[in-house]
Amino acid sequence: MSDALDDFEMIPEVPSPETLTLELDGWEGPLDLLLSLARTQKVDLREISILALVEQYLVFIADARALKLEIAADYLVMAAWLAYLKSCLLLPREETEDPSAELLALRLQLRLQRLNAMREAGARLMARDRIGRDVFARGAPEGLRIVRKALWDAELFDLIAAYGALRARAEPAMHIVRLRPVMTLDEALTRVERMLGERLDWTALEAFLPETPDPAYRRSALASSFVAMLELARTGRIEIEQEGAFAPLMVRAA
Amino acid sequence: MMREPDEDARAVEAALFASEEPLSRAEIADVVGEGVDVADALDRLQADYAGRGVGPVERGGKWHFQTAPDLAHLLRRERESPRKLSRAAVETLAIIAYHEPVSRAEIEAIRGVQISKGTLDVLMEAGWVRPAGRREAPGRPLTYATTAVFLAHFGLESRRDLPGLDDLKAAGLLDPVDAILETLEVESEDQDV
Amino acid sequence: MMREPDEDARAVEAALFASEEPLSRAEIADVVGEGVDVADALDRLQADYAGRGVGPVERGGKWHFQTAPDLAHLLRRERESPRKLSRAAVETLAIIAYHEPVSRAEIEAIRGVQISKGTLDVLMEAGWVRPAGRREAPGRPLTYATTAVFLAHFGLESRRDLPGLDDLKAAGLLDPVDAILETLEVESEDQDV
């Protein structure tokens, strides 16, 4: 047990009332102070007199105040609560009272027992044969090593494909212009002239375009037909009219 | 003279001696290879080393060699005293060990004060305490539990070896206060009837 | 079962085991205290541990515990795990195979990018590439070549089995990727006509 005490800073020795008045800073809150006071009753915690304990606490706080010690708020809250508990315990019991003073006292007693149990458990833990203090592991273990060796995964095809791609990258690039579907200007001229012979009224340019699902071919036809119409208008064979920018381009035979 | 050990026991002995960390049976098996009855070899090793100055011990399902506790007086290193633990840290460790998994609020309820920032950090840094998942309760509080390192450090084979655990359990000192009071109330009501 | 050791042997045993460094007899005596015949205790320990997986050994007048030499293979195990070679590594290997002996600068010139230090290391660690002497040129650059392990892994009798540029071209492996796609498109259009 003495070993355990070496190892953490302190379990307060059961204090005399005089030391209590001087060491308010040494307590970890009101419950800690109450537990230390309870121990001065020198009985099993299950047997302590809660009324006496309340009295001890109130006296302690009163002494501290008399000495003008600074007292943290939670100590005063506990004092107020204990004063209330004391009056309840002293007054004749009212049946309707809920919770009863006895129950409150029991709750306090249980909390003290639980804290005390953990405090003792901690001391017993600290007193065990501890590694690095009482028992020792091997000072210079060789160590176990599992060396993960990579088993590289590569196929001959990966290798030659990579080389092919590299060489291809290095070769001067050969550009092949793709053959695209287009309507030539001549085709467009022939087509528009032929169609104008059939239509006398104003007709939108789009009506002259061939039906096609291919948007590229349609764009080519549109451009060529437009140029063809400009050419026909220049030679006075057709008239072109447009009401405004981006409005439909209307055409008729002159 | 020691009994001439069989090859299995020799291999397990060497593995435990050489390892920098305690090893589970599965980890030992990983080192010594297939076809070794590790549990059986460990039994024989324990018998072989009974009463010697060092020996194999099991802590939290992991095995390591350590010196005999009664030789502590020879080996204790004066210069490097173990890390000083504050009283708050010792109590918090005890509460976690005896109540695990336990939330911060529950630790504070038992101690009657808030846990200061560094207390849990110190215990986790020592490798004794780990977060143990969230509780399915309002606020989903994080809970804490102890580790195999904790058991090894304090020479416990398992949590069941925690000193006084059974007594504390029987006395209801590990149950929440409210739970005890409810039991008492029910009992007293029963008596009243 | 080991012989029940005497107290002196136990103390020396624990001291040697726990020490981070080999200990001389005098240092052991310092630990275990006066009145212990250390030399005698060490003799008994050596006899006790004869044939076991570990034991006390003396090296240059200092004693320490050591695992038995015949069990050394347990302490360092090699595991092989398959891993995919990175593209950089595959390309570098290909260049070395086709151009060996080849310097790092030449590899970089062909790849068009620098090679990282790790890439050649990986190939050498795999046993596929070896340094092949320095080139008698300014800066005397180190050159690299492939190994017999490389040939065996890729199923090649010799480097002459690597497909030549003509073979690569015939297999379509030399065509730039874009050109290949465009060719396909033109062909399909031709078919439409």
What does this structure look like?
The complex is a heterotrimer, with 1 copy of chain A (254 residues) and 2 copies of chain B (193 residues). By secondary structure, chain A is mostly helical. Chain A has helices spanning 2-7, 17-22, 30-39, 50-66, 73-90, 101-126, 156-170, 185-198, 215-234, and strands at residues 145-153, 203-204, 238-241, 250-253. Chain A has a 3-stranded antiparallel β-sheet with strand order 2-4-3, with helices on one face. The longest helix of chain A has 26 residues, at 101-126. By secondary structure, chain B is an alpha+beta fold. Chain B is 49% helix and 14% strand. Chain B has helices at 7-18, 25-32, 38-49, 72-75, 87-99, 104-111, 117-125, 148-153, 165-170, 177-192, and strands spanning 23-24, 54-59, 62-67, 102-103, 129-134, 142-146. In chain B, the strands form 2 sheets. Chain B has a 3-stranded antiparallel β-sheet with strand order 1-3-2. In chain B, strands 4-6-5 form a 3-stranded antiparallel β-sheet. The longest helix of chain B has 16 residues, at 177-192. Chain B is elongated. β1 (145-153) of chain A pairs parallel with β4 (76-84) of chain C.
Report strand order across the widest sheet of chain B: 1-3-2
Which residues of chain A sit in consecutive blocks of at least 5 with pLDDT less than 50?
1-22
Report the portion of residues of chain B in β strands. Answer: 5-15%
The CATH topology of the largest domain in chain B is Arc Repressor Mutant, subunit A
Overall CATH architecture of the largest domain in chain B: Orthogonal Bundle
Shape of chain B: elongated
Domain module tally of chain B:
2
Topology overview:
The complex is a heterotrimer, with one copy of chain A (254 residues) and two copies of chain B (193 residues).
Chain A: H1 2-7, H2 17-22, H3 30-39, H4 50-66, H5 73-90, H6 101-126, E1 145-153, H7 156-170, H8 185-198, E2 203-204, H9 215-234, E3 238-241, E4 250-253
Antiparallel strand pairs in A: 2-4, 3-4
Helix pairs in contact in A: 3-4, 3-6, 4-5, 5-6, 8-9
Chain B: H1 7-18, E1 23-24, H2 25-32, H3 38-49, E2 54-59, E3 62-67, H4 72-75, H5 87-99, E4 102-103, H6 104-111, H7 117-125, E5 129-134, E6 142-146, H8 148-153, H9 165-170, H10 177-192
Antiparallel strand pairs in B: 1-3, 2-3, 4-6, 5-6
Helix pairs in contact in B: 1-2, 1-3, 5-7
